[in-house]
Specification:
Blueprint: E1 2-12, E2 15-24, E3 31-37, E4 43-47, E5 52-53
Antiparallel strand pairs: 1-2, 1-5, 2-3, 3-4
């Protein structure tokens, strides 16, 4: 688990937000981003495949693809079995 300092702006299926925590369970699992959603204040955790870097004109990222909301809720964490 890594606390991001500064937080990273991300596009998520729930809207724009800032990632404050990155969770890495190892080589056979996705990275998970804990994001504070700007518009609602909600806190969601998303798999790496569900988020995109926010627009950044200086870096040439002018039209990032908006992630699709494949699931109505956050991706469940893997079990510890």
């Amino acid at each position: 688990m890594l606390q991001l300092n500064p937080p990273l702006p991300l596009c998520t299926p729930k809207g724009e937000g800032f990632a404050h925590v990155l969770i890495d369970y190892g080589p056979e699992s996705d990275l998970y981003w804990t994001v504070f959603i700007t518009a609602t204040g909600e806190i969601w955790t998303f798999a790496n495949r569900e988020v995109r870097a926010s627009k950044n004109i200086t870096l040439g990222r002018t039209h990032p693809q908006v992630p699709r909301d494949e699931h109505s809720s956050a991706v469940p964490m893997r079990s510890n079995r």
